[in-house]
Amino acid sequence: MLVKVVLDLDPSIFSAKPAWRRTWIAVDSAQRVEFQSTPDIMATMVAIGVFFISAAPSLALLFGVLLPNSHLFVLSILGAFMWSLAMMLSGIIWLMIPPLRNVYAWSLFIAVTMQELMRFVLHRIFRIMSRHGDGVEAFLRPGVKNDLLTGMSIGVGFAFLSAMVNFYATVVDEFASNTAIYTERCSINFVVAASGNALAFSLLHISLGILVWPAYSEDPSSLKVLFGYVLHLGISLATLGSSRKFGCTWVLILVFALVFIVMGITAVQSKRRVKKETD
Questions:
Q1: Is 169 within 8 Å of 104 (Cβ atoms)?
Q2: What is residue 46's DSSP assignment?
Q3: 3-state secondary structure of 133
Q4: Which of 14, 82, 135, 244 could form a disulfide with 118 if both were Cys (CB 3.0 to 4.6 A apart)?
């Protein structure tokens, strides 16, 4: 039977209900599926607007800091590429173990592990390049401030793609396959909740870039690298509480609180390192 899926935008865009509602219409006996959408312009603009809010930190740093400094912009592109590679490898591992495909904790563990592994791999690539020529010094410049800017640039690359992919994937999971983790039990507007989650992890990626990168380069420390990994994994696993009733509300509060703590730690550590260099 042919089933036509009509996605209508709910006019009450700020209600607890999702901004779209799904209607299934049996048409005839043909074995195919058609999709038809009738968008409401206000709900569409809200969806676009909240996405740009989730990507605002990385976009602000991109236009305000990275683009005026071409070497930092190159680093952010490399960071975005490594994040994409991490997610590709995560997807391959996810496909290789079918029994665990529906275990959200496993998916988060693999994704976080691959992302932090790619950060480490990128640093190793830089070190190998530095041994075979001076070209890498054009965008990897010495000094504490430059080291922090390098970590921030790579974090921005991680953050922008993370915000874009997380927001898009969450919305598509709900409205295309009805598999989003928290939609039915979410007490706030779903699109706003999805963008809030994407914003939190965008800030987290930037902060971790600044916090963890020096532990690879200027001030090597395996414990600091492990600390960054545990922070990333712990905050990611905290989002699993969204599957509980009213979970998306308190999870957003918890995740933002943890991210702000990480940002505070990053600010204090960065200030100490800069002060130590100037003294």
A1: no
A2: H
A3: coil
A4: 82
